[in-house]
UniProtKB/TrEMBL annotation:
Family listed: Belongs to the short-chain dehydrogenases/reductases (SDR) family.
InterPro entries: NAD(P)-bd_dom_sf (IPR036291), SDR_fam (IPR002347)
Spans traversing the lipid bilayer: none
Organism: Pseudonocardia alaniniphila
UniProt keyword annotation of Ion transport present: no
Name of the protein in its database record: SDR family oxidoreductase
PANTHER family given in the database record: BENZIL REDUCTASE (PTHR43008), CHAIN DEHYDROGENASE, PUTATIVE (AFU_ORTHOLOGUE AFUA_4G08710)-RELATED (PTHR43008:SF4)
Keyword terms: Oxidoreductase
SUPFAM superfamilies: NAD(P)-binding Rossmann-fold domains (SSF51735)
């Protein structure tokens, strides 16, 4: 049997995706900490292994799609930065890597991982923290963030989402993913009305609450989880055949407001591969 795995399916956007898939008659296996088919803590190696094993057994080694929505928010708490990075980064990329052969087995699978616009609108995220996460070194990343004080959970959250997006973009274009028919892409929402956002807002200090209110959202308000689930459904559909390694930002315009001039940008000359050399010569001639 083939079907779809959705992590974080007990709540919020993951639940909205699972509901839509089931309504469309697709078999779904949910992974979460509670109220789902596979109860597993994706923040631990044991939880990830158990989840991968259960999903592979359920699917008979063939998956049509994977949606990695499990995640936790940047609230204060002892060791919270480490936990954020374990769940949001390792809980996404290590599980997805373990499921890749089952996605490849169907020949036209889709995978959607949840990033966040936090990756691009949070200032001061050290590049070496993101690099440590990409190397799987959560403890090293967490040690660095001890210096960040009260904003350490926010930096850890943004770093985890940055690393997830970069990991997905690097993997998406390789023979193991694109070449195996898998379309791997990232959805990067802005604030969306889910229990995660409610929990985060409940913990904000008065100063942080004021900062949150001043976040520019040009269309106003916050996103609807059902609307975000529709974007995932599109990214799981046949229409995503030519979508590969993209970060789809759905954030009410915050990113465009803050960073309109920063993307799209031409590829830097030192990254230019051979077939583009004629453009390099052209750029130099001007
Ligand atoms: P949510 O809190 O409603 O749902 C997240 C689910 O993940 C929960 O059911 C939770 O139990 C599960 N989960 C948490 N830790 C887990 C673990 N260790 N193992 C297994 N499951 C675990 O949150 P929401 O808002 O639906 O978030 C979905 C994704 O979207 C998350 O990755 C989040 O970081 C991301 N996101 C959310 C935004 C928002 O404003 N709500 C904005 C941008 C990104």
């Amino acid at each position: 049997m083939s079907g779809y795995v959705v992590t974080g399916s007990a709540s919020g956007m993951g639940a909205a995706v699972a509901e839509r898939l089931r309504a469309a008659g697709r078999p779904v296996i949910g992974v979460d900490l509670h109220d789902v088919d596979v109860v597993a803590d994706l923040g631990t190696p044991e939880g990830r292994s158990a989840a991968a094993e259960a999903v592979l057994e359920w699917s008979g080694g063939q998956l049509d799609g994977a949606v990695l929505a499990a995640g936790i928010s940047p609230v204060p708490g002892p060791d919270r930065p480490r936990r954020i990075m374990q769940v949001n980064h390792l809980g996404t990329v290590e599980l997805l890597a373990a499921l890749r052969p089952a996605l490849a087995a169907t020949g036209a699978a889709r995978a959607v991982v949840f990033g966040s616009n936090s990756a691009t609108i949070t200032p001061g995220v050290p590049r070496h923290v993101v690099r440590a996460l990409l190397a799987g070194k959560v403890d090293r990343a967490a040690r660095t963030l001890r210096l960040a004080g009260a904003v350490a959970p926010n930096i850890a959250y943004a770093a985890s989402k940055s690393a997830v997006a970069e990991w997905a973009r690097r993997a998406a274009v390789t023979p193991e993913w694109a070449g195996a028919g898998i379309r791997l892409n990232v959805l990067a929402p802005g604030p969306v009305a889910t229990p995660l956002l409610d929990g985060e807002r409940a913990h904000l200090s008065p100063a942080a609450a004021a900062a949150f209110r001043s976040l520019p959202v040009p269309v106003g308000g916050v996103g609807d989880p059902g609307d975000l689930a529709e974007w995932v459904m599109m990214m799981l559909s046949p229409a995503a055949a030519f979508l590969c390694g993209s970060v789809v930002v759905v954030d009410g315009g915050t990113e465009a407001w803050l960073r309109a001039g920063e993307w799209p940008r031409p590829v830097p000359l030192h990254r230019v591969p051979g077939w583009l050399l004629r453009f390099r010569a052209f750029a130099r001639s001007r």
